[in-house]
Design brief:
8 helices, seven-stranded mixed β-sheet, alpha+beta, Acetylcholine Binding Protein, Chain: A
Amino acid sequence: MIISIKLLVITSLLLSLGISFIHAASETDTSRLRKDLLTGYDKYSRPVQNHRDTTRVKVNFILKGFDLDERKSIFNMHAWTVLVWEDGHLKWDPKSYGNITRVHFAAHELWQPDLTVYNNADKSEIDHFGNTRLIVYNSSHVVWVPPTKFQVPCQTNLRKWPYDTQTCGINIGSWAHDGTMLDIVTPANISTMDITDFRPNREWELVDNSFIKRIKYFVGVPYPDIVLTLNFARKSSSHTACVVIPGLAIAAAILIAFWLPPGSSERLSILLVTILINVLYLYYVYSLIPNNGDSVPLVLLFYRDSLFMLAFALVWTVCLRYLAATKRDSPVPLPSFIMGFLESLPAKILCLDPRPTTGRRENTGAEGNEQSDGTGTANPFGSGVEKKNPFQDDWAWLAHLLDRVAFMVYLVIYLIFYLALL
């Protein structure tokens, strides 16, 4: 009986020693180090021995890409955020752990700075940095490089669309700690983000970016934050092809119509067809550009004002046809100051052709189509109306002069439009 009890005790001791040896053999230096570091570690407390000490977090950004939702006025920036700080609880002697100088931890295991986007436009449960692992060095330095997506509101200015340049900003700072508890440190002599691995955007071209630290004081307490600003310009080649060039064609059609005689049927046809095209493009541009601001795009104003100018050109043409070709029962001479202007050099330059003299012959038969005046100069309007008024050529030439003036006015207006747009 005594012998069996001794055997049982010896067997139990051997089993315990075997389990201990197996456990010791399975425990690596890394797992032992992790267990020792996490023993008694509080991830919800700032990693300082004295609560009056300041935790300094070094911050840098590697810009990966961005996109802009113009209809919702939402800007998204994709980056790698580089965060480095010192955690006094995570320090060890490498010689005691197989010369291990660094070890990895999950994001939920260690304290992390509570950096938050102040102008956030994402969901209320904020998690900008995701659940990536941290690297801890034996010197107590912690390095965290999480892939980051910042989503913020950005009010766009489409005044110069499609040649517009937009500016969007992101404000980042601690949500619960002031500058005496958590200070943000930016790289020295660096005011821009790293764009080495930047992925070009399909619609936008990055012009410039800035990365600065600010300190605001509330009741004498400092609150540091970081301001990221991106300036980017629209890639406008496709918009130029489908929107701007047709606008140039509409302007050219109006000017060509003004160069034709008011009495010609082609002029009315060109104006009517151009009005139809302008209406279609006005609706197309309106549906293409987001309606998210008080600043109306110049290209939309161009098509709107061009439609008004086309309607006025149509009314102008009808009035000139009446002025130039309507028969008058009694001679109505032009006022003397108008006659004087018709004889001036500017009038000759605008009308280009020599001004006809007053015709006093009535056209009959086949001559009615050309309406030759007394000097053999053809009536530029070709109205086909028999002349019984000896001053008819003066009225026709006045209409011709007014048409040239309208042509010059329209040309100047369209040049101003395009200079403002481009």
